Fold these 2 entries.
Entry 1:
Amino acid sequence: MTTQTLNTQSVVPEDVTKWIRGLGWTRDGVLGNIAQSWRREDSRVVVPTLTSSPDFTLRWSEMLTSISRALGTDAAGVLLAIAKAGSDIAEFRASGQIDDTLPLGDASTLVDSVRRAIQASANSALQPRSYFGHSVPDATRLHANGVRMAQTRHGSYIVPVISRLPVLKPDDVEDALLFEDVEYQPFARRAMLRLAEGLSTLHELTHSAAEPSRSSITEAVGVGVSSELCEAVANTLDTTSIADLGVAFSWADRLPARQGPTAVTLSGEASEAIRQVGEVLKGAPVVGRQTIVGYVKRLDRGEEDEVGRVTLRALDNDKARNISLELNDADYHVAGEANTDRRIVSATGVLHREPGRALRFSEVSDFRLVEQLSLDPPNRLT
Amino acid sequence: MADGSAKQKERFSRAWLIAAAAAADFTYEIVTDDERGVDMTVNSGLHVVDFQLKATSKPEVHDGLLMHDLDVRTYDLLRSTLRSGYGVLALIVVGDDVDAWHLMDAHGTHLARSAYYLPLFGMPATSNTSTIRLKVPLTNLLTSTAMRMLMDAQAARWTS
């Protein structure tokens, strides 16, 4: 991938400090929230951190010059490396009767299919469903608009899609622990993982001699397969010039995705099977279950009530939010213990997003304490 | 006798900053785009001082103070305490005869006339909308010692 293929305007100071820390630089000075001084051997660099500072752009330019000098590259190379370290990249490779060109209509279908696949995966990350219809939540729309398409490449026709991972911060200090949960992945990462896992599962369902069972199709909803994803892939495979669609994933260095698939190829011969999976999913609405992790913020149960109502504070779409759920007697006791001992809990169920209403979690199962996480500092755990 | 254009004065005025910075063992950069109110930066390797350069061949002096009317926009940019760099005005008084600006023989070099500085960092806000009258003490000569003192003031803002 060449320098100009990555848009680097979205690199922010936190991206730089995370990146240089990973390269062995250490912070040795602070100017309030305005700037930080970093050092590696004989090299020093000042990273401006306050974007509203009157000299931010001047300092930013100096910073890039300093880093590029230390690393023996140029400013564009530094920005490219920072952007790649903080971004997931999916490369959609169309192959078939393609040299360096392909029919305009097929190119249009390919790009539109990529956009629809990205959108379907973001939708699935928000709430797994077999069929989304016209439902495009703001978070999904923002994600689909936020990812960027790099320049295409020679050989087969490749459309690289870059998804930048934000550095997450809590709005409220009480929620800081939620953001330290190493299991939590930013929404942009979860959407890209859904794309990778969804395409891999779609391959498993449609590239063997045996026809997939209905249950295996509905189970696939939970990992990102949806009617829309199937349709997007099949549309590409049904063009005249594209025989196969390969998708290669590279995961941001800053946030390793060790379990994430790295490549999947969908063959044109499977196009009909892929459409059939999509039709099954469209005809039998399924809502996938999700697991949330958070702390118990509120408990509410009357003397005669069989169930207890609990408000959980958990991360959703990169923000800490209240999620209400009803728990049976045993689980309510676990929630009480978690609240008393300031412990973190996890729950699996179905998340309901209703416009203008608080988030609600139903069909709860596997409600339990998370062993390694507590609201208190580690030395108070024992 | 010509006293030089504003651009020529600006270019000539850099000589004083370069000399003082080099003598203090600092590096310097000329900022070609002074959109942010900075014409030159001086860097110690750890810290940076930002200079706005103004040159005049007709100095106005009252009671040992050089008067200079600086535009409020530049004043606000350089006085801000949210800057990473330490904002300073450098006022260079050049001779009124361009031919006598730079004279040199085997015994030495003569630049006409002198450079003065006024730290703007942390100065108070003004209600003026166009310019603000600044008073630069004639004792504020922009020597290498002064350059080190400005760098020390910038360094003092940082914590480890």
Entry 2:
Amino acid sequence: MTAQPKVSKELDLRDAGARSSTENGFSKPPFLGFGLGLRSEHYSEILDNRPPIDWFEILSENFMVPGGQPLKILDQIRASYPIVMHGVSLSIASTGEPNWDYLRSLKALAERVEPRWVSDHLCWTGVHGVNLHDLLPIPYTQEALGHICSRVQLVQEYLGRELVLENVSTYVDFAESEMPEWEFLSELTRRTGCWLLFDVNNVYVSARNHGYDPVRFLEGIPADRVVQFHLAGHSDMGDYIIDTHDHPVSDEVFELYRKALDRFGPVSTMIERDDNIPPLADLLEELERARRIAENVLPSQSLLQLNDRRNEHFRRA
Amino acid sequence: MSRLAELQSLLQNGILAGDNECDGVLAVLRTGNGAPVAERFGIYTNAYRARLVEIVGKDHELLVEYMGEDLFNRMALEYVDAHPSSTTNARYYSRNLSLFLAENEPYKRWPQMAEIVSIQTALDDAFDSEDNLAAGLEDLSGLAPEQWAGLVFEPHSSVRTLEATTNAFEIWSALKAGHEAPPPEILDTKLTLIVWRQDLTPKVRPQGYEEAMLWKEAGRGVAFGVLCEMAATFDQPETAAERAASYLAGWLNAGLLASARTC
Ligand SMILES: [Fe+2]
């Protein structure tokens, strides 16, 4: 264990070479390969066997606690694996006051974890001091865009890093929306420099729920702004789909993933499972399916570099 | 108020009220494909309650077992309606549950329920409380005999104490061990429970009356010599120092103290 922090530092250096810079001085986060959402059910297996997973995404709020076992385990896992932070309570679209306690705690966690990036969702979770613990939809209007852009800028400035924002699954849309979701996201990333977490399942779910072709969404997003993919399972209720994250990823979502790789190139990919959590081996199998699709779609060069890095990493670990 | 703020208030009120058919909300949503818009908005209103009830149930699995699912679900829904969440971390959502059970009918008629929840809440708080080194017996090894009276103590940051009026600890322990819960009882005298984290493991144990009194005084900065005098007035004076020393050894061995030093 004692030698492991060194490994992650060396990975940092290698990744630095692969970064490309953008006009505002920040650089595009690196392609990390194929990862998983870190879940407590798998802690001991990960720590005992160090399975060959390229990276983990943690749920930020799970570690926004004073101390004890969660942070201790996280310290051990981050010594062996690259980590990205994913939150659910930033409520970036909220018209309430910015929650400075939350932001302070998020920033402190980011300083401790040194994640490759910090993400949350393009949504709001409550106003008037209430948190509904849900990812709620927004109207796609110029007014909302202006408000959210100013919030993203505020948060990016406070955290000293660019945010990565994810499209959510929605079940209703507002009659007064002035543009499609993909146009809203594109404009948001253009104006603020934030990156996008493209949740392939959420695109599929929202497209079905609102009756458009998911490929239109895909093609509406700028090709160079996506830094992460989520793959997840849903529940098909017939008339609509609910984003439940309690099933394996569907064939349709894998098919859309193939098209997404085709458009966005090598983008860090992970499986998001939040309920009905299967053994780690099952998730690794699903992840393997994603990797095989990527091997078919992507130029072999982009994956070769990743393989070198992975082999090196696990030899040392 | 901006239009976005108006829409957010409107939706939030509909969700909190559990009103899928809320006219104001339906008027701003697009109708169209597939299911009726009230049914779609219902996905949010239903998910809101279901999610919070699930959070409370996961935090208090032994209470669910003790109450039975039906009574628990009814109670949890009432809790959700009485306590919209204000925390950004679901981990803290059920922190008012004990008080809710203690204050509201019919649950307050069964005071052991609120106390079972208090025990669990204290354990959960100890589990991820601030990291803080614990003092051990070895920290006192170099102490000269005349220095002991001047020892003062600082409790470990994970420590919480509770006062139970019922046999909730006995019930909680039985449920935890997978046994049948004993019948509820009101105790003749309050029982002090001490909850803390030893290394990474949260723990709970009852304290006898004398130990509880000395622990409380020690936490207020009272020196060991005075604790011995208090023990002497409380019970047999000849063995008072011995008893106090044995409590202290127990505290140090269990990791209950952050420091023990001479002032
Ligand atoms: Fe997602």
